[in-house]
Amino acid sequence: MAQNIPKGAYTESEDVATHLEYLKGHLAVFPAFMGGLSEERQLARSGPGKWSRKEVLGHLIDSATYNLTRFTRAPIGPSPFVPERYPQEELVRVNRYQDLPLGHLLTLWEGLNRQILFVVEGLGPKELALPIRFSDGTTPTLGWLFNDYVAHLEHHLQQVYAR
Q1: What is the SS3 assignment for 106-157?
Q2: Beta bridge partner(s), residue 45
Q3: Which in 9, 39, 75, 126 has the greatest CB count within 10 A?
Q4: Are 154 and 10 in contact (CB under 8 A)?
Q5: Per-residue b/e over 130-146, b at no fewer than 16 CB within 10 Å?
């Protein structure tokens, strides 16, 4: 099923403004796509041990929650900022996304991503250049982290559209 969605093939050379536009495009299209699916298609899993579309959406909610915290704490905390990792499988299980109404999930996903847009649009070049230190020792910037957030979002949205 072909979708008219903005595709943000991620490259490190693209700037934050480009990824902000990708995120805005997904916010404009994805809720209507999900809302147009039957409940059976929302709940169906593509195989054993795989997440349903609703669970993928739940995972994206978890990602938005953690990343919103990163985007707001990095500019006000010690530098370099060390982000907390999140246990994705456990969060999807504990949050029981499969059992929640789709409207609830979409409202939460949209609200978190609109707040991320608001926060990141307000960050200046100095803040976007802040170092982020991951447990593997790499230290990309906060701007890179936002671009990577959008790339991660797009990866999972393509999974949802492709089923």
Answers
A1: HHHHHHHHHHHHHHHHCCCHHHHCCEECCCCCCCCEHHHHHHHHHHHHHHHH
A2: 52
A3: 75
A4: yes
A5: bebeeeeeeeebbbbbb
Beta bridge partners of 131: 141
Provide the phi-psi class of 96: left if phi over 0, else alpha when psi is between -120 and 50, else beta. Answer: left
* Model confidence pLDDT, tens digit, residues 36-72: 999 999 999 988 999 999 999 999 999 999 999 999 9
Model confidence pTM above 0.70: yes
The gap between the terminal CA atoms of the chain, to the nearest Å, is 8
Type of residue found at 81? F
137: which residues sit within 8 A by CB, 6+ positions away? none
Q: What is the 3-state secondary structure (H, E, C) of 61-108?
A: HHHHHHHHHHHHHCCCCCCCECCCCCCHHHHHHHHCHHHCCHHHHHHH
